[in-house]
Amino acid sequence: MKRIYSFNFLTRLMFLLITPVFFQFFAIGFIWHSIYWGVITSVMIIWMAFILLSPLVGRVGCGWFCFMGTTVDFSGKHSFFKTKWKKPKLWVRSLILIPFFISAFSFYYLNSERGITHDFAVIPAFLKLDFNMHYKIVWMTDTLSAIIVGLFLDKRWACKNLCVMGTLYSRGANYSRLISVVDTNKCTLCRKCEKECLLGIPIVDYIKNNEGLVTNSECILCGKCVEVCKSDAMKLKFVWDREKYKNRIKNSSDQQL
Ligand code: SF4
Ligand code: SF4
Ligand code: SF4
User: Fold this and answer.
1) In terms of C-beta density within 10 A (0-12 exposed, 13-18 middle, 19 or more buried), how is residue 91 classed?
2) Distance (Å, whole) CA 9 – CA 60
3) What is the C-alpha to C-alpha distance for residues 172 and 164, in angstroms, rounded to an integer?
4) Ligand 1 center to 165 CA (angstroms)
5) What are the DSSP calls for 145-170, one per residue?
6) Dist. CA 112–CA 38, nearest whole Å
7) Which residues form the pocket of ligand 2, taking CB atoms under 6 Å from any ligand atom?
8) What is the side-by-side order of every strand in the sheet holding 213-214?
9) What confidence category does residue 127 fall into, taking pLDDT thresholds of 50, 70 and 90?
10) Rounded to an integer, what is the distance from CA 159 to the centroid of its chain?
11) Among 120, 101, 217, 236, which residue's Cα sits nearest to residue 159?
12) Distance between CA atoms of residues 257 and 250, nearest Å
């Protein structure tokens, strides 16, 4: 279990390296293009599957797959600012959804009038695998923006405030069954996990107030906290009934007093 972050690191590095070739599969912006053309493409299928699965396995898409998140994390290690955890601004998040979907569906409607849409037929390879100059420029712009955001803004600021997928994921992740869990009997409150968390989640607050269940909808299940915990108190675990789990932990702590 402790090695989970090593696997996470390798997986994310692999996706980062193959993204230039398979950009159309991974880039969230292509969801906008898919709506624009009225076609269900592979990128739409992949990201929609992650959204549908988020009430079960949270934000694994963000933590194991997304090249933007990975780039932000890499550059964020050299960030010029060390800020404290700030909650996402829900109103900013919600406002971003509106222009995203309104503009995409408006273009879809105009294209439909011109008879060049596809009635949302499933055509996975519609956005072809040809990585032409246009896509190269978009990819370079995305990567550069992620590097700048990582260097100058709060940890994963864009994931918490701007990304449309992040907003949709976080709704499902509120109910995720796969959660970071702390064994409160083993924990020494050293705060190492909190310092190293890629999102800067205030994990110790969850240890003190939530029986060790890190039920934060921004958690990307990367396993970094598991790796750094020297007391072996942190795990990624399936918790099917949160209230039952919390009561069980509370009762066992009461008995020890
Ligand atoms: S919030 Fe968006 S940009 Fe961030 S990791 Fe998730 S999908 Fe990628
Ligand atoms: S690193 Fe481990 S022991 Fe330290 S606060 Fe986190 S869970 Fe507790
Ligand atoms: S709480 Fe742990 S698993 Fe979740 S984002 Fe932070 S380091 Fe990753």
Assistant:
1) exposed
2) 13
3) 13
4) 6
5) HHHHHHHHSSTTHHHHHT-HHHHHHH
6) 8
7) 182, 187-193, 203-204, 228-229, 231, 233-234
8) 213-214, 178-182, 234-238
9) confident
10) 7
11) 217
12) 11
Q: What share of the chain is helix, strand, coil (3-state, %, to 5)?
A: 60, 5, 35
Locate the domains of the chain by residue range. Answer: 4-172, 177-256
Tokens of 165: 């997928």
Q: Would you state the structure tokens that stand for residue 46, as one six-digit string?
A: 């992949």
CB 38 within 8 A of CB 142: no
pLDDT one-digit tens code per residue, 163-201: 999 999 999 999 999 999 999 999 999 999 999 999 999
Instruction: Give residue 65 CA to ligand 3 midpoint distance, Å.
Output: 15
For the chain, first and last CA: distance in Å? 30
pLDDT at site 2 = 76
Class of domain 177-256: alpha beta
Q: For residue 166, list its beta bridge partners.
A: none
Q: Which two tokens stand for residue 74?
A: 């890499």
State which amino acid sits at residue 204.
V
| pLDDT 10s digits, 131-144 | 678 888 989 999 99
- CA of 183, closest atom in ligand 2: 7
